[in-house]
Please model this.
Amino acid sequence: MSADLRGKAPPAGAVTLLLQAWSRGDLRAREELMPVVYEELRRRAAGYLRRERSGHTLRPTDLVHEAYLRLCAQNAGFENREQFFGVASRLMRRILVDHARAKAAAKRGGGLRVTLSEEPSARPPHADLLELDTALEELGAHDERQARLVELRFFGGLTIEEASHVLDISPATAKREWVHAKAWLFARLTPGPSASGRS
Model:
């Protein structure tokens, strides 16, 4: 790895240049890039797993390792770091959902519970990860961009600015849609006599 990328987070431009080189088939660029993004993925995965309730058996290292292997196996023509971490967000969602399905199959009622809020004071409902995945599919059926925004932020740990870049929308629009998407999911996943009638 280049000396300026070793041991510290590289500037976004350096990551983008390596991603673009990898997309052109430069495997040396991939080898130089992967230790950098591996550490970033590990940080994001650790942040995600901290929001989960106790009892989860998947460690951040396991989650990142699986996502890392899948990312190395493909070359999606990455143009920048936000797009790369957007793809990683989707992969981590699929890995977590597959893990939750396997755990639920092995032990009835053993689904993974997660929280939907970044603010502890908000006291959000806890949702089963499989229920959240289903709710995101439903949200995507009537607003694909909002569902993708939740996936980028919740599973990938992208900031509003990073997610807005992936989705090619302004940060202001991303903030507004993030609020709307969370409100929809809270209504969809909150138990109550009127929950089934919410849309």
Q: What stands out?
A: Residues 1-7, 119-125, 193-199 have pLDDT under 50 and may be disordered. Strands lie at 113-115, 126-128.
